[in-house]
Amino acid sequence: MAKGESVAGTDIPAGGFVQLLTPDGERFDSVTTADGTTYSVDFTDEEYRELYRDLVTVRRLDTEAVALQRQGELGIWASLLGQEAAQVGSGRALRPQDMAFPTYREHGVLYTRGIDPIMPFGLFRGVDQGGWDPNEFRFNQYTIVIGSQTLHATGYAMGVTMDGKTGSADGEAVIAYFGDGATSQGEVNEAFVWSGVFNAPIVFFCQNNQYAISEPLERQTRVPLYQRAGGYGFPGIRVDGNDVLASYAVTRQALDNARTGQGPTLIEAYTYRMGAHTSSDDPTRYRIASEVEAWKAKDPISRLRAFLTKQKIVKKDFFAQVDDEATTKALDLRERVLAMPDPQPVTLFDHVYPNGSPELDRQRAVFTEYQASFEGSGH
Amino acid sequence: MAKGESVAGTDIPAGGFVQLLTPDGERFDSVTTADGTTYSVDFTDEEYRELYRDLVTVRRLDTEAVALQRQGELGIWASLLGQEAAQVGSGRALRPQDMAFPTYREHGVLYTRGIDPIMPFGLFRGVDQGGWDPNEFRFNQYTIVIGSQTLHATGYAMGVTMDGKTGSADGEAVIAYFGDGATSQGEVNEAFVWSGVFNAPIVFFCQNNQYAISEPLERQTRVPLYQRAGGYGFPGIRVDGNDVLASYAVTRQALDNARTGQGPTLIEAYTYRMGAHTSSDDPTRYRIASEVEAWKAKDPISRLRAFLTKQKIVKKDFFAQVDDEATTKALDLRERVLAMPDPQPVTLFDHVYPNGSPELDRQRAVFTEYQASFEGSGH
Amino acid sequence: MITLGKALNHGLRRALEDDPKVVIMGEDVGKLGGVFRITDGLQKDFGENRVIDTPLAEAGIIGTAVGLAIRGYRPVCEIQFDGFVFPAYNQIVAQVAKMHYRSQGKVRLPIVIRIPFGGGIGAVEHHSESPEAYFAHTPGLKVVSCSNPADAYSMIQQAIASDDPVIFFEPKRRYWEKGEVDLSSALPAATPLHSARIVRPGTAATLLAYGPMVRVALDAASAAAEDGRELEVIDLRSLSPIDYPVIFESVRRTGRAVVVHEAPGNVGLGAEIAARITEECFYSLEAPVLRVTGYDIPYPAARVEEEYLPDLDRVLDAVDRSFGW
Amino acid sequence: MITLGKALNHGLRRALEDDPKVVIMGEDVGKLGGVFRITDGLQKDFGENRVIDTPLAEAGIIGTAVGLAIRGYRPVCEIQFDGFVFPAYNQIVAQVAKMHYRSQGKVRLPIVIRIPFGGGIGAVEHHSESPEAYFAHTPGLKVVSCSNPADAYSMIQQAIASDDPVIFFEPKRRYWEKGEVDLSSALPAATPLHSARIVRPGTAATLLAYGPMVRVALDAASAAAEDGRELEVIDLRSLSPIDYPVIFESVRRTGRAVVVHEAPGNVGLGAEIAARITEECFYSLEAPVLRVTGYDIPYPAARVEEEYLPDLDRVLDAVDRSFGW
Ligand SMILES: Cc1ncc(C[n+]2csc(CCOP(=O)(O)OP(=O)(O)O)c2C)c(N)n1
Ligand SMILES: Cc1ncc(C[n+]2csc(CCOP(=O)(O)OP(=O)(O)O)c2C)c(N)n1
Ligand SMILES: [Mg+2]
Ligand SMILES: [Mg+2]
What sequence ranges are listed for the domain Transketolase-like pyrimidine-binding (chains C, D) (predicted)? Predict the structure, then answer.
């Protein structure tokens, strides 16, 4: 394995990024950026296999979700197809004490946190709003309003500092996920302002999948997104988001910088949304097939597979076995999604306020009485 | 006059800026920044005198306004003391066809546009909301909500492009004023996004007067503000905002770039708010006298005066004459402010909608009847 | 027969044709034609300068529209979903609503802000809200909502032609409902933008609704008619100002009124309408004005939204309660 | 006797003392002590980690407060003036208000958002607004307003101690009004945060007010008493939820009600209160519930604001009209 020649950092050329694994499965030992940082990974064979398992599994679960949506079992689904490496790489880079703030597409990150993948399905099926306890899973609730979670993550990170939980190798770090489109939101830029001013222990992880629904990157910026960071006083770096190794290495480094008190980093993971924006979208209206084809050649899974094969890290039946396991997981997921019960109507009135409200109690009582009036009437 | 040695540009060191006139009145012929741009001015003696007149006049009018406020004749006043050079320099750099979007402090810019300085006094006296026709004066209304005008300016600039009024030397350009504090507002950063994406013919002119009310610059950024621009794909430059010549030169260049189709520039005019934030503020609570003293030595007026004197550009009684003229203007202003009539109560209901509203007509009628009921009752 | 969505599309097209200063702007309004296809084909035919795909920033959409309006343009802004208008709220209430007043009439902002609103489409959070009260409570804004294809076609054109800033609420779950639209009709012949309309005459009680709830009110009236109770249904069309003369006249006749909307009841439009009717028709009322609204909860999960949304049964129940007073 | 502003300062100080998780954040809250000096001296005594001067970004203030709350803190955010809350509106209505519901009770956001509100101080635009209806209409938020120093002292502590997100409206023109405050009193002994209070008993009609208008209502009641008309004055204190039992009981006794607030009347709190009273006390009402409010115009220039603001005369005029019905 050669020493990486690509030079990347705050002044990498457009299109340049940190890459450790080429689309053909060639591996660079390390990459050194212009600022002198060296990125590398040192995985055991089993860890490589584990990464491959993750990638395949999150894609397979995603495929199942797409199917469930088509069959009317989910109201909508936001597929991560094509973004597996960015998500698995960054997600695996998190240490147990770290906290993640996702958008609505980070099913892969969720999976790598060891969370039951069914967790967000309540939201997409429409049986609930997708609520869970962020602190239990060190994984915040999905956020639908574009960009808002970046401020939540920043505030949480300020709290980490206030709690004295930075400045050492076992400090805590925070990661905020968002898309290329989100970089245009005022709130996201305010998160950059605040993180710089308070030297917050945070990593901004932007999955630049080239589109915000139909709008191509040029509608959000005319320079590479990672460069946004410099104007707020922290480093920005672009990584090959289809390379799980580089995504891991760069995120791990940035998180460790954050936890040791060196403040924020913006990571732009350069990737591509292979599917529709969501199941409601029709990408053929705004992008051409050849573009999608070109990105297929950069697939995050096939390159790791090529590497594993070339390096003889895996046994003959490994790939089939992984596929089988993933399918088993997917079918289990399907079964459990189908079994998700619809909420009881009267739960409408629950959890509006921690302390409740007499006005709501009144409305709940009226509602209950009204519902009861239909009993036996076949309503 | 020596060739300026200071090198400034998108990579000038912290504290470095474009300067053509030192606090002692030394003049550099030109300054060349790292990106190769050379800034210089080529004024006639009369033009130098005119600039001096402007500086003294806007300061004198401001002093009068402060006095009027103390005497209870204005509800509030936002003094420009210390920022005269940034405002006169940039204001004089505008060409007649250009459009300015001020905050609430740009009385100096307003003056250089040839506008009667009484125009904003309705707002500060409380007899109106400060409304005028932006297109008549090529000077938008004062904007109080921090940062909002930067988006208005951006939209206006997009309209300039759509009207085909860029791309030549007599094209139109737009300038948006805002403070250091404003750079933290999401809306201002959105204005940067949009201006980059649409290559809008706009100059963002940030008067960094070191404070947002009580908050020092460190609460908004940990790197120089002009560097914010790079991340949006356009140049940023810091200029000595207490140097009227440099402020003129840099703004003129940026405006000409905008009008000829080269897109936005962010100018950070490095200056100091010598007075209180507004008449309601007490700066002794948050800053020390020695800091203010240090900035006094960099006064924008005294340095031009020193230059005019050394260069023998003015006659003996010039300075006294300018002071006298300014005082005459100030007293005239005072008189006219005192004569401003209070609005008629019923005008409350005017101008809510261009097309009116029957509901408002009803409320106006009720109000009028109610008012009439007090007639003769001494109410 | 065309759908309400298509009627809006035709109306926008005609506005673009009629006035070169009209520009459409928003997220995904170009090639995609908007997530609901309301601007379908317009960028292709009018170009990228007239139909502008914007950065993903709602404050930016409205803020730049203000600047474009000062420059002489007539921006028609699309907010993708009701729940995403809030990043633009500052620009709308502090700038769009106030600039004409601030300038003593010297600055007009002929901006239309289109917002697909309301629930019933099985969506996730933030996609089913009814924020109209936030805007109706804001002086300086006019607020309207269409309920059928013919109105959609004329009202969007009237809103664009008006020099007032108009918040234009589109009943998203009715986008696919069809109706007759005379695409050759001239604007001046249309019902004025701020007029309410009696869409079903009746004598027993007055139902007041707008946008997506007009259909529900009409269905309720049909059902009541089978039981021999003739309900009058008024489509408000304009939410601020409200066309009160039509309402008062009706309620004085019927003596009973029920207001229907999806938004939470607390400090909603129904409250204002109830209060005004009571002030003006006190001695005509046989019962208090009743409200059938969303509950005072965040919009709930899709699988239970039908329990949240006013429906025929809840409207009839309110009518019954009014008669039982 | 201390001022209302000072009472808030004492209340905030005590909250900081009582719970190490309480943090104050906002623009100029540190050395300056806020533009109204409500946080005066607190940063000096509690440090920069407890009293945080923030960047000039209201969405940032509320958005980071959400994150701090998830982390276990209890942020008390200051919005400098009423008119500057709108950049934070998205965070407030889409996140703060909804997160507990979204999470099915798993995430509590014990955030207090302090907003000095209302007019009468001769200020320029955006400094005199009354945006409470925007928040009261939003399920998931609790909204309160204090009207006197004693309430200011206890209510701010109760709001901070509450796990509900609370929008805390401070009547800025009453900051300098003095009253007795028992600084040693224990919180549990105070009137509950969401209770209304009869501040002057009466029999002839019920006046309902909150925040800055309570004083106006009390003055009107005094004046009316001289004419032999005993008005009951209720200080609502809580604007969402409203403590209706107290109100209904009063109106059933008096048969007449007048609601007073500074905010524009259209779709304001007065509308809701009028509608609810009418629904619940229909047969007790001698006249419709009347409203004395700001007009439906943007807040006007200072020199004419007294004509805009409800005052003693307008309140009495409404009472007269009620009696003349
Ligand atoms: C404030 C806001 N505006 C609009 C939307 C509608 N919307 C949902 S996803 C999306 C595009 C997001 O693009 P990007 O940030 O690149 O993330 P991606 O979906 O590509 O992962 C839009 C416009 C929203 N959710 N929130
Ligand atoms: C959105 C908003 N928040 C708060 C304020 C209150 N306020 C008025 S001026 C000011 C400070 C502005 O600082 P800066 O941008 O540096 O401009 P300067 O006053 O120094 O010229 C603040 C916080 C406001 N006007 N608008
Ligand atoms: Mg994207
Ligand atoms: Mg400043």
Answer: 2-177
Which residue in A286, A75, A258 sits closest to A174, CA to CA?
A: A258
Taking CB atoms and an 8 Å limit, are D267 and C136 in contact across chains? yes
Q: Which of D96, D102, D258, D267 to substitute to test the interface with C, most C CBs within 10 Å?
A: D267
Q: What is the rounded distance in angstroms from the CA atom of residue A39 to the CA atom of residue A27? A: 13
Using left for φ > 0, alpha for ψ between -120 and 50, and beta otherwise, residue C237 falls in left
Alpha-carbon distance of A18 to A239, in angstroms, equals 4
Chain A contact partners (≥3 CB pairs within 8 A)? B, C, D
Question: Within an 8 Å CB–CB cutoff, is residue C87 touching chain D?
Answer: yes
> What is the pLDDT averaged over residues C147-173?
98
Residue A288 is classified by DSSP as -
What is the per-residue pLDDT across B178-227, written as a single tens digit (0 to 9) for each?
999 999 999 999 999 999 999 999 999 999 999 999 999 999 999 999 99
| Parallel/antiparallel/unpaired status of strands B215-216 and B211-212 | antiparallel
Tokens for A378, please give them: 């076949």
pLDDT tens, residue by residue, C88-111: 999 999 999 999 999 999 999 999
Residue with tokens 């499965």: A25
Q: Are B144 and D296 an interchain contact pair (Cβ–Cβ within 8 Å)?
A: no
Distance from CA of B19 to the nearest CA of D (A): 29
Percentage of chain D surpassing pLDDT 90? 98
Domain ranges of chain C: 2-189, 197-323
Residue C136 pLDDT > 90: yes
The residue count for chain A = 379
CA distance B165 to B260: 9
Q: Whose CA is nearest to atom 19 of ligand 1?
A: A212
What are the backbone angles phi and psi of residue D248, rounded to the nearest 5°? -60, -40
D312-323 vs B358-373: helix axis angle to the nearest 10? Answer: 100
Structure tokens at B91: 């204001």
- Pocket-testing residue among B144, B146, B228, ligand 2, by greatest number of atoms within 8 A of Cβ: B146
Mean pLDDT of chain B: 94
DSSP conformation class of C106: S
Q: ipTM value, please give it.
A: 0.98
Quick one: closest CA in D to A100, which residue? Answer: D67
Pairing of strands B265-270, B202-208: parallel
Determine whether domain D2-189 maps to CATH 3.30.365.10: no
What is the count of residue pairs from B and D with beta carbons less than 8 Å apart?
116
Q: B344-349: long-range contacts at Cβ-Cβ below 8 A with a sequence spacing of 24 or more?
A: B345/B371, B345/D304, B345/D307, B346/B371, B347/D304, B348/D295, B348/D297, B348/D300, B348/D304, B348/D307, B348/D308, B349/D295, B349/D297
Q: What percent of chain B has pLDDT over 90?
A: 92
**What mean pLDDT value characterizes chain D?**
98
Neighboring chain C residues of A146 at a CB cutoff of 8 Å: 56, 84
Tell me the per-residue pLDDT of D169-208, one tens digit each, with 9 for 90 and over.
Answer: 999 999 999 999 999 988 889 999 999 999 999 999 999 9
Q: Tens of pLDDT along A109-131?
A: 999 999 999 999 999 999 999 99
CA-CA distance, C139 to A255, in Å (whole number)?
48
Mean pLDDT across A135-156: 98
Q: How far is the CA of B190 from the centre of ligand 4 (A)?
A: 19
State phi, psi for D242 to the nearest 5 degrees: -90, 140
In the sheet that holds D257-264, the strands lie side by side as D197-200, D231-235, D205-209, D257-264, D290-294
Distance from the Cα of residue D278 to its chain's centroid: 24
From chain A, the residues in CB contact with B185 under 8 A are: 186, 190
Residue A34 pLDDT: 85
**Which residues of B, range 112-131, sit inside 8 Å of D by Cβ?**
122-130
